[in-house]
Amino acid sequence: GFRTEVAKDTDAGGNVVVGMLEDGRAFIARVDGPVHVSPENKRSSSALADSGLTEFTSLSTAYGISARGDVVVGGADTAGGRHAFSWTKDGGLRDLGTLSGYDEAQAHGVSTRGDVIVGAAQKADGQTRAFRWTRTVGMVSMGTLGGPSSSALATSSLGDVVVGWADIVAGEEDDPESGDGGGRHAFRWTKDGGMLDLGTLGGRTSQARGVSGDGAVVVGWADVTPRKEIGNGYTVNYYNNHAFRWTQDDGMVDLGTLGGGNSQAYGVSAYGDVVV
């Protein structure tokens, strides 16, 4: 049998799990066993093995799956570098490419119907840019919050709300005592409003990881107000991060910890009432 290295996502019913095997291949785990995204599996009877993956190498990762379990997204190596992909049982693996001027890309989230896909493209120097892909327009940059990089990590059921993180303008949060500056903040994007900075819990950084089906509830983690320690004539800031739940009415609410210093939220239910 095969052992999975990392499980990344599941469909709404919890019947299909996607991720990456320990040998670097993406997988879809169903009740009848794993299905592999790999051109080496041509003799297998699995749906993925028969879907014509010859242009892709065996190195790939599935990061997200639609609520209905019929569209899988992630990143796969090609002759031109790692590209974002989508997969369906009937259509097989589809190369979504990358943003113009960027070298690689990977998809992180997908809408319920699979018609909106979000993720990040990356340059050779490590700079990343959040993208939103649709069947009609293709891959479009979502910009940043003023800094060099961003990444889209999840989308609502209809694909009209996207969340993730983005760099703010370097130096915007400079701390004159410690020299800390810049940072990255969680964002919530809508077509009409663009990228909204969700802020932090008093620290420098935050990251949105999940969004409810209607896009009204966003979860993730954020730095809390740092504790300062003074030694050898200078001040050092130590940041802990706490899970948060954000809504338009309440803003970013600290969910606390289980008694330790840190906590992180990775997902939220369709109605926004359960956070994990």
Descriptive account of the structure:
This protein is mainly beta and 276 residues long. Helices cover 0% and strands 51% of the residues. The chain has no helices and 22 strands. The chain has a four-stranded antiparallel beta sheet with strand order 1-2-3-4, with no helix packed on it. Strand 9 and strand 10 form a beta hairpin. The protein is globular, with a radius of gyration of 20 Å. About 11% of the residues have low confidence.
Please outline the major beta sheet. 4 strands, antiparallel
Number of helices: 0
Report the end-to-end length measured between terminal Cα atoms: 30 Å
The proportion of residues in beta strands is: over 45%
Strand order of the largest sheet: 1-2-3-4
Rg value: 20 Å
Helix content percent band: under 10%
Oligomer: single chain
Low-confidence stretches: 38-57, 171-181
pLDDT average, as an integer?
Answer: 84
Order of helices and strands: EEEEEEEEEEEEEEEEEEEEEE
Anisotropy-based shape: globular
DSSP summary, beta strand count: 22
* Overall SS class: mainly beta
Record the SSE blueprint.
Layout: E1 4-10, E2 17-21, E3 26-30, E4 33-37, E5 60-65, E6 72-78, E7 81-88, E8 92-97, E9 104-110, E10 116-122, E11 128-134, E12 138-141, E13 146-155, E14 161-168, E15 184-190, E16 194-197, E17 202-211, E18 218-224, E19 227-231, E20 234-238, E21 241-247, E22 251-254
Antiparallel strand pairs: 1-2, 2-3, 3-4, 5-6, 6-7, 7-8, 9-10, 10-11, 11-12, 13-14, 14-15, 15-16, 17-18, 18-21, 19-20, 21-22
